[in-house]
Structure formats: C-alpha cells, structure tokens
C-alpha cells in the first residue's frame, strides 16, 4: 500500500523517482548543478608555466657547474728565480690562464699562505722539489695539484736526461751514464679529517642548510602572526637549528672541525639570516615576498655558492658574486673555521650579519607600516 509520504526508490543503474514522478538527481554532481571546468587556455598555460619553472630550476643548478672551467687558481711558487721563471712558463704553456701565480720567499712562506687561504697550493723548487696541497680545499683542487706534481716530475726527469746526453756527446761524461731520478714530493699541508676523508660532507650539507633556512622562514611567515612574535620565532629557530645541525655535522658525522660553539654560531646565524630575510620580504610584499626570498636564496645564492669547487672556476665574476649571498658565505666560513683558522673570516661573517639585519629591518618596517595603516583607518 502506498501513501502520500512515499519516497523515491533508488534503482541500480537507474534514477530514483518520487511518488508523483518527479525526477530525482542520482549523483551529488547533478544535485549541486553542472560542473564548471577549467578553461582549456588556463589549463594549458599552467602546464607550460610549470614546465618553464622546472627549466629555470634546472638551469640555475646546472649552469654554474657545466660552464665552470679551471682558471685563475691561486698558487704560490718558491725557489731560485731562474727555476721559478721556468716553471711559470711551463704552467702557462700547459694550461694558459689556469693559475694565478704568486712568488713566495720560501717553503714556510708557502705553508703560511696556504693556511691563510691566500693560495690553494704551492710549488717549492730547489734540490728537492715539492708540491704543497691542502685537501681541505676540495677534491678538484687536490686533483689539479697532483697533476701539476706529476707534470713537473716528468719535465724534470726529461731535462736531467737531456743534460746527461749533452754531457756524453761533449765528452764530459762516459757513455752509459744514467741521469738521476728526480721525485717531486707531494705534501698535504691541510688534510681533511679522517671522518670526512673525501671532503664530500661540507658540500653535501650546504643545500639542506639553505633549504632548511628557507622553509623555516616560509613556515614562520604563514603560521605566526605578529611581527615581534615572528622575530622571536626566527631567533629561536636560528639558535635551535644552529645547535642541532652542528651537533649532527660535527658531533655525529665529524664533517665540521674546530670549536663546536663557534661552528654552531655560524650555522645558526646562516639559518637565521635566510629565515629572517624570507619573513622580512613577506612582511613588506606579502606572499610575493616569500617568492623573492626563495628565488634569491635557492635559485641564485645556492648555485653560486661554489660549495664543491673553487669560486674562481665559475664563469666571469659570478664566483665572487656568490660570496655575497648566505649560501656562499656560510660554506666558506664553515670551511675556514674547520680547517683554516688562520684565514681572514671577517667578510663571510659580515655577509651573514648583513642579510640578517636586512631581514629584521624588513620585519620591523612591515610592522610599523601596518600599524600606521591601522591608525589611519581608525
């Protein structure tokens, strides 16, 4: 028996029908109305735009490496002036422009210059020729200097053999006289720690530090309200991050060397500087400011940081430019603190401090600007 309160009955594969024949929607989409589709032009534009972003990121990270060349590597030469001049010509002939040569007084001066990072290596000439390296400068530099040592040894033995042959021809030496074998000794003045014997740790940790600083700034920008609270959050983030990250890099993996607290200060300041800059840009320009901070830090600063190769190898002035950004300054500072305590580290400290100050100024400027707008509206 049916009544006036009969309800529609859903039928498998069909539509429900009300008691009086009304048509009942069989799906939520039909009940909510027609589905509005994204216009084709917009969908295609988004796809092309996403692909373009990938291309930009790829170029930003690969371009400095692909276009890098061995050039202007600072090295020193010590020894008799005639030998120094001959070796300089030999180096220039073998690889023109590869080295920026500084003449040094003696071996000790060469060691001092390496420890201060005035040069990346040195050639000591004389009766016992020697090539001084510093594997803490990276595998690329060590490989080049080892190759230089091999070339010098080959050339020295060839010259000795030629001199003996001339002496025999002139009757100054008996036939069958053998030339002395000359060995060019290679000495690692600043070796890597045994816990990071290949020197990969510092370069590998550079990008995670940069990414961590940026993510911290983004999260604080989006989730913390109030300029002073944001500043406090960024400060605590820098302190906690510096202590924790240094504990891992130095206490656990042994990548960093030297004083833990100084290293923690450097790491914390780097993370604070990146996060503060992102938050400051957000305070000034809104969500666009976050993008500005990310682009300058990740897509510009990090590829130019020269974390895995000498800054001189990058095209044009970009190696030097990269040292003005947080990624480049931080990796240089941590390398100096770990292995080159005699080096002048003032510049990277100032760079990190400068970016931190810019970020704080941005946060405060955004705060007072918003305060003025609120008062004007009232």
UniProtKB/TrEMBL annotation:
Keywords: Membrane, Transmembrane, Transmembrane helix
Keyword Membrane on entry: yes
Keyword Translocase listed: no
Coiled coil: none
Transmembrane spans: 43-63, 207-228, 234-253, 260-278, 284-301, 346-365
Compositionally biased spans, kind Basic and acidic residues: 7-23
Region feature Disordered, mapped onto this chain: 1-31
Protein name, per record: ABC transporter permease
Organism: Leifsonia shinshuensis
């Amino acid at each position: 028996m049916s009544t006036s309160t009969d309800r529609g009955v859903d039928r498998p594969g069909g539509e429900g029908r009300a008691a009086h024949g009304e048509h009942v929607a069989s799906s939520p989409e039909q009940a909510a109305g027609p589905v509005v589709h994204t216009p084709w032009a917009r969908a295609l534009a988004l796809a092309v735009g996403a692909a373009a972003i990938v291309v930009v990121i790829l170029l930003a990270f690969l371009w400095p490496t692909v276009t890098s060349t061995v050039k202007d590597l600072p090295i020193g030469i010590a020894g008799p002036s005639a030998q120094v001049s001959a070796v300089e010509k030999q180096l220039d002939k073998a690889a023109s422009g590869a080295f920026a040569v500084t003449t040094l007084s003696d071996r000790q001066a060469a060691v001092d210059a390496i420890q201060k990072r005035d040069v990346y290596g040195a050639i000591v000439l004389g009766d016992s020729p020697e090539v001084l390296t510093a594997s803490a400068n990276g595998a690329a530099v060590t490989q080049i200097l080892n190759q230089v040592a091999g070339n010098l040894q080959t050339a020295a033995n060839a010259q000795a053999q030629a001199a003996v042959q001339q002496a025999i021809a002139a009757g100054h030496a008996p036939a069958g006289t053998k030339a002395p074998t000359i060995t060019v000794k290679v000495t690692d003045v600043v070796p890597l720690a045994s816990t990071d014997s290949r020197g990969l740790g510092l370069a590998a940790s550079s990008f995670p530090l940069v990414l961590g600083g940026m993510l911290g700034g983004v999260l604080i920008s989006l989730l913390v309200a109030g300029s002073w609270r944001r500043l406090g959050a960024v400060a605590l983030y820098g302190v906690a991050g510096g202590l924790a990250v240094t504990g891992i890099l130095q206490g656990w993996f042994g990548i960093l060397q030297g004083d833990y607290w100084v290293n923690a200060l450097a790491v914390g300041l780097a993370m604070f500087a990146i996060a503060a800059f992102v938050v400051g840009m957000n305070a000034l320009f809104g969500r666009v400011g976050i993008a500005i901070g990310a682009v300058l830090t990740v897509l510009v600063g990090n590829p130019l940081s020269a974390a895995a190769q000498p800054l001189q190898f990058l095209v044009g002035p970009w190696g030097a430019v990269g040292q003005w950004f947080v990624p480049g300054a931080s990796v240089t500072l941590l390398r100096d603190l770990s292995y080159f305590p005699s080096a002048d580290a003032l510049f990277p400290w100032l760079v990190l401090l400068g970016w931190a100050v810019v970020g704080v100024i941005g946060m405060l400027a955004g705060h007072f600007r918003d305060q003025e707008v609120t008062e004007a509206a009232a």
